[in-house]
Amino acid sequence: MPKKRNAAQRIGAIGEDRFRLSCQENFIIPNKVEHDFGFDFLCQADLSADFGETGPVSGVFVGFSVRATDRDDGRIRLNRADAECLLAAQFPTGLALVKLDGPKTASVYFRMMDASFIVELSQFLTSAKKSRHFTPKDMRPMAEIRDAFRKVSAVGYLEQVRADAARKIAEPITGPVQIRIHRDSGRQATLITSLDLYAWFEQGTPAEQEALYLATFGEPERRDRRMRQLALNGKAMGGLVHLPQPYVLAGFVMDHPTGVCVHSPSGSAHLPVLRTANERHFGYIHPAGFALTVSSRVEQDGQYVHMMRALADPDSDALLGNHPALLAFLTACHPESVFSFDDRDGPPLDARYFVNLGDLAQCAAAFRDAQRLDGWDAAPVMVKDMASPESRNSLVFLASAADPQTQPIPRGLLLTTPDVEEEDCDAVPGAVNVPVVCNLADSSLVVWFSGHGSVLFHNGDPCGFTVPAFGVDTIEVRARVPSRSLFPQVHLGPRTLLWDAGRWAQGDAGTGRWADDLRLRFQLD
Q1: Superkingdom of the source (predicted)?
Q2: Same structural domain for residues 242 and 260?
Q3: Per-residue pLDDT tens for 161-219?
Q4: Which domain CATH number covers 133?
């Protein structure tokens, strides 16, 4: 059977010949690539002024991918691999379209890989499409190719058009941006400067939005570190992929000094803050890691609203005791309080609209009250403790322990099975010491309550106590005691007491390995 030649092979071969001839007619030297992996020709410009003159040849090679078609509309197709090849080349490139009207007549068009073409192909690659089509109306006539060669032969052309394309890709997402290539001996980098630095980071998922929120409004000293951990916006970064690495991203973060005042029936308090914002929120941050924020308009239940939130940085190790102005501000926050802002006209904002503010205010008030306890000075309570439900529970318990009108430790307790009654026990006078473990974010406070009363025995074994009143003997700061509970607790051997919402409840011990000295102690008279 003889060899056969199909129409596609015929069109391709004639198309390349027509491109070659058109190049010669326009003083472009076409060099056919022997091993073709995306580029059919490497072309140089003949710089002679006319046909009969001897002149120099440009030292710049321009790669051309040639596509031929006999369709009436002149349409050609590039797939994703074709686009990636054009974008990845480290030399100037172009696409040629040869429209055949039979084997003897053809029209040749071209398009250089300029900034707009890079944008088109980059957007195609970020889409779900498998191919991209072009027609002669998308291209330039071959008569203009010498002018195009002069532009692409300029020093730095390739990096310049890629930087321009990257800017055009990024600016719809990030706003105004400047991109510069920096190079010195042995080193190079792409410098990116943006007016809205936050816009360069992914915000598609709730986790990404929360990470950006925390970087913006958390403790200012942690901002740079957090921003380095954020995922960069894939679409904005898409145009940078072929520019020199590493990328250096810089921008402007506005921290404007101002103040916020809380007004409540019991008094007012003023807090110096910094005003800052990202695309989704604006807010007021205190350097210790507290913030009040207001979102841009969002739709909720068919209405547009602004979501308001109070934030305590969950990583801030600033000691609460070192920030009396913040404590005074938070303890003045009540549901009926309102906020006014030094840099903002308009009606005050109601405190009750700020999510989480009630918990933070309760925690700050508990911290204030707990300071009356003996030995409190060593307690390392931090801003991040206000963000922890376990720490808040501990502080509320400690505030209760500091109140002389309350009795947080039970006056009487039986540790054995329910069928044993107090009248079945023998009472022996003695002292009772009860260690309550109150977990904070990074440590545990062990509060020892002591009282004198009676130790109860059943069949010769201690099984409980009755004590008229307890007092705080001392507070120890220890390494954090492991616990599965979020509440202050007393370890009783086989059982644990948990202090939940002002009441003690017994449960099975689930505390892991506790130190032997963190147990109920009896000392008989």
Answers
A1: Bacteria
A2: no
A3: 999 998 999 888 888 888 888 888 778 888 888 877 888 888 889 999 999 999 999 99
A4: 3.40.1350.10
